[in-house]
Amino acid sequence: MYEDIGYDVEDGVATLTIDRPDVKNAFREATLDELNDAVRRADEDEGVYALVLTGAGDAFCAGADVRSMPDWSDGSKEAYAGFLWKAQNVVRQLRSIEIPAVAAVAGPAIGAGCDFALGCDLRVVDPDVKLRQGFVKVGLVPGDGGAWLLPKLIGESKAREYLLTGRDITADDAVDLGLAVDVDEEPLDGAYELVDELLDNPAHAVRRTKALIDPSLSFEEYCERAIEYQWECVNDEEHEEAVAAFGERREPEYDRDYS
User: Fold this and answer.
1) Is the distance from CB of 233 to CB of 208 less than 8 angstroms?
2) Residues 239 and 205: beta-carbon distance below 8 Å
3) Half-sphere exposure of residue 42, counting CA atoms within 13 Å on the CB side?
4) Residue 128: which residues within 8 A CB-CB, separation 6 or more?
């Protein structure tokens, strides 16, 4: 179905793999089209309960493949905006889809590649990871969301350090800053373990909790939304099963039709 990415679904988990290892999974415009389609597809599949985003080989995503980029100086602003929007929309979708998204990050995750990882809800990294907002190094700004995401994830002062210098965020830094849940020699395995933990919880509650994590909401807006979501959860069969299992000191058994 796709040329630049892999898309596999097993036991309720959709795995999206950026599959251009010969260029460290750097993306071209077709890659962005496929990523946007695959993220949307996973979220619309009723049998998918979580998404894992990773890269083939020894890299997550080295950013844009400059060899496949047109000479934007000879093009129009509108054409460039359209290309940039596609990269932004990968991040936008990862943040807005209902199902949780986990990034398994090995090696370099640079520029927009870093933003794809930051757009996920959780991250597991390998010891050699390099999360880099390196736009300033090549005379650009973080056009894909990095200067909006990073301050919210690690605080404004520390984010300014990485954004303005282009320094790498190492594996230890990522854990210390709260960007990564864990460092794992096999981050994909670690991501699946994390997803298993998410799937142990009632799915609707996980989805609605993700939707509540919205810093743009005022407290009153949050409370209003929480009332609606809590009422949905109170009337959810998995909530009833989770409460019953807790009272009976057993593991819950959810009736799910996994893809």
Assistant:
1) yes
2) yes
3) 31
4) 106, 107, 171
Spatial neighbors of 161 by CB under 8 A, at least 6 apart, are: 167
Note the pLDDT tens digit of each residue in 21-75. Answer: 999 999 999 999 999 999 999 999 999 999 999 999 999 999 999 888 777 777 7
Give pTM, 2 decimals: 0.95
| pLDDT tens digit sequence for 150-165 | 999 999 999 999 999 9
Exposed, middle or buried: residue 82 (CB in 10 Å: 0-12, 13-18, 19+)? exposed
Token pair for 148: 């909006």
Cα separation, 156 vs 31, in Å, equals: 31
3-class secondary-structure state, position 152 = helix
Mean of the per-residue pLDDT values for the chain? 95
In the block, tokens 């794992």 appear at: 184
Integer Cα distance of 34 and 98 in angstroms = 19
